[in-house]
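Posted in: Structural Biology > Protein-Ligand Complexes

Title: Requesting predicted complex, pyridoxal-5'-phosphate in pocket

I'd be grateful if someone could produce the 3D structure tokens for the following input. Sequence and ligand are given below.
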Amino acid sequence: MHDFRFVGNKLFCEGVSVGSLAKKFGTPLYVYSQHTLTDHFQKLDRALAPLDHLVCFAMKSNSNLSVLRVLANLGSGFDIVSAGELQRVIAAGGDPCKCVFAGVGKTVAEIEFALKAGVYSFNVESEPELQRINQVAAKLKKIAPIAVRINPNVAAKTHAKITTGTYENKFGIAFEEIEGVYARAAKLKNLRLRGVQMHIGSQITETTPFELAVKKVLPLVTRLKAKYALEFFSIGGGLGIVYDPMLASGDPAWWQTAAAKNILTPQKYADRLMPLLKPPGLKILLEPGRFISGNAGILVTRVEYVKRTGKKNFVIVDAAMNDLIRPAFYDAYHEIVPLTKKGGATLKSDVVGPICESSDSFCKDRPLPKVGEGDHLALLSAGAYGFVMASTYNARPLAAEVLVNGKKFAVCRERQPVKEIWAGEKVVAWLK
Ligand SMILES: *Cc1c(COP(=O)(O)O)cnc(C)c1O
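-- Reply #1 --
Done. Output follows.
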């Protein structure tokens, strides 16, 4: 559930009309709901309460400092994938001791920084990385806490570009090799074998792939714990969300539909996994990104032109693939609603941005209410992998971001001034 819904014919985020935000701050504009972020975090956290656990928000899905602070204040840890993300956690007032550092390409400088900051664990993805972390730790006279990422070789039943847990992917170390890797790691003097980790993919909307993966690795995890006194088992993130039109538009009737019965909820996830996860007696880490932030944000855009061709109705808006790349990148579906609902017939439309690429399109032939120049639309479920993937392609400044809490709202990122786009550039001397 989330806190974007129509009150009368106006879209609201919590107690604030989204139209008033568009008027005040301009578009394209990301709007986040603090209550939704809080609610999603707490639903997961509470469902897992019977286990010793830590939810580490995968901040690559949304790393705005205010979003991080909301979660840090709730006790969240963070799943980070670069030294830059760790610096963001620190800037937001989060605790590095609750951070796990993932990723296949950690540099020496990143390892040094994370070791000095005191991260909870490096989630290691290869043997050369183990060697490198050991060397860096020796140089700094420190002991580095590590977990090895198991690639369980299970299909996550999701889009190919977001599957990570099969041998076709670059992530983790093959299931069959893990015991050998731990045996060699145990000989490295500046490592502490603290845990074991896995992550099978993203936007997984059923519990079964998680259950199969956990069942597959559990005997191995139990043996490793006995041998190396491991402290934690991270089962990764990847919990999917509903991009479904009815739910996405906050319609309570959706919960009566057949689709609702199959939806992955924190309670179902916990009910299926907790009986498996309790016996080994390890601290359980979870790394959800999209589940917490996805439905907590929308992208608001203004209609610039409506262009009718013989075949098509193009709604040309002021947001583009540089603001939200998911449709172009993963064929992702985002529900699109006008900020002011009007009755009347729908028209099959393509909502497109101004960028000179055919893939700069948010939807094709979708039945939408008739809109005209100056109307506003919202792309829903844009809180995860939205702003964080934005670029300045076509010299388009990064959008502004606003956080809403009840009736309160504030800019949590200013719209980028256009000159900042080339601030680090110069015309080299010999051209002058
Ligand atoms: C991306 C990622 C996550 C989060 O994925 P979501 O689908 O957003 O939950 C968690 N763990 C690791 C290692 C990741 O790479």
